[in-house]
Design a protein that fits this description.
The chain is α/β, with parallel strands linked by helices. The chain folds into 2 domains: 2-122 and 198-291, Malonyl-Coenzyme A Acyl Carrier Protein, domain 2, CATH 3.40.366.10; 124-188, Alpha-Beta Plaits. It has helices at residues 18-23, 25-38, 42-48, 51-55, 57-73, 90-97, 103-123, 136-145, 168-180, 201-212, 235-244, 252-261, 275-283; strands at residues 2-6, 83-86, 126-132, 151-158, 161-167, 185-188, 223-224, 231-232, 266-269, 288-291. It has a 4-stranded parallel sheet, with helices on both faces. Strands 4-5-3-6 form a 4-stranded antiparallel sheet. Strands 7-8 form a two-stranded antiparallel sheet. Helix 2 packs antiparallel against helix 5 (57-73), helix 5 runs parallel beside helix 6 and helix 7 (103-123) runs antiparallel to helix 10 (201-212). The two termini are 20 Å apart.
């Protein structure tokens, strides 16, 4: 069985999507349509912008979404997923790829999500950090022990790799405590704010309204969602999980285990980067991994 997975924020690079645009008429049509829908030339920023341009949340999120989704749409009969999943933002890409969402609706929701998250980030100084070499339970306990600041587990990426999210003071304090408790590393991340934490509540409320007003269909295959790590096909459950995703942790470790338990033998990463392939290999060395091509 084939699992197709879609990357999230951080996978962007200057020049992303340019080859697709140049070699595929269908891709070119979709990229130009995206420029119209977004009301700015995202193609200019993706193909010829700077790293700084691509780090802006309102550019990063639609850029990664477009690269991933347009690639899946140009694969033709080669794209035959038995199951899909996406890491954080990538969940929206996966939902378009498996036909739960249309291209237009998916892009509009991603643009709304990026704007809402940007606003939430500006409301309070906040950040994230990657914790390596500690048990998930140990990280959870230390986060819970910090009472006066917001600090929560945000991304369960693989065994021994958990990203925490919260206020700047809270993250600094947690990193200190986690290193003292035996973490191999505590790496602050260059992000705009505390994604997948309670500090994203204003964004969650804003996005919830947009999701409620968008049509979700039954996809061609199940999606394994971030909030539960479980396989879902019901459009209403998918909607609710997608809304909860902004303030809840990404349970990627659970997704990987559940996809493999459900029979996934091959994992194809669709979009920029190879991070998700590496995470699957950490969980199962025998899994076949590759990057999608058109």
């Amino acid at each position: 069985m084939k699992a197709y997975v879609f990357p999230g924020q951080g996978a962007q690079f200057v020049g992303m999507g340019k080859e697709l645009f140049d070699k595929s008429a269908k891709a070119k049509e979709l990229f130009l349509k995206a420029n119209t829908l977004l009301k700015f030339k995202i193609t200019d920023l993706m193909f010829e912008g700077t790293d700084e341009d691509l780090k802006q949340t309102n550019v990063t999120q639609p850029a990664i979404f477009l690269h991933s989704v347009i690639l899946s749409m140009t694969m033709g009969d080669d794209f035959r997923p038995d199951m899909v999943a996406g890491h954080s933002l990538g969940e929206f890409s996966a939902l378009v790829a498996n036909k739960t969402l249309t291209f237009d609706d998916g892009l509009k929701l991603v643009a709304k999500r990026a704007q809402a998250m940007q606003k939430a980030c500006e409301m309070q100084p906040s950040t994230m950090a990657a914790i390596l070499g500690l048990d998930d339970k140990d990280v959870e306990l230390i986060c819970a022990s910090i009472k006066d600041e917001v600090v929560v587990p945000a991304n369960y990426n693989s065994p021994g790799q958990l990203v925490i999210s919260g206020s700047e003071k809270g993250i600094a304090l947690a990193c200190e405590k986690l290193l003292a408790s035996g973490a191999k590393r505590a790496l602050p991340l260059k992000v705009g704010g505390a994604f997948h934490s309670p500090l994203m509540e204003p964004a969650r409320i804003e996005l919830a309204e947009a999701i409620a007003n968008t049509k979700f269909s039954r996809g061609v295959c199940p999606i394994y969602q971030n909030v539960t790590g479980q396989s879902v096909t019901d459009p209403e459950i998918i909607k609710n999980n997608l809304i909860a995703q902004l303030t809840a942790p990404v349970r990627w470790t659970h997704i990987m285990h559940n996809m493999i338990a459900s029979g996934a033998k091959e994992v194809i990463e669709v979009g920029p980067g190879t991070v998700l392939q590496g995470l699957f290999k950490k969980v199962d060395k025998n899994i076949i991994v590759s990057s999608a091509t058109f």
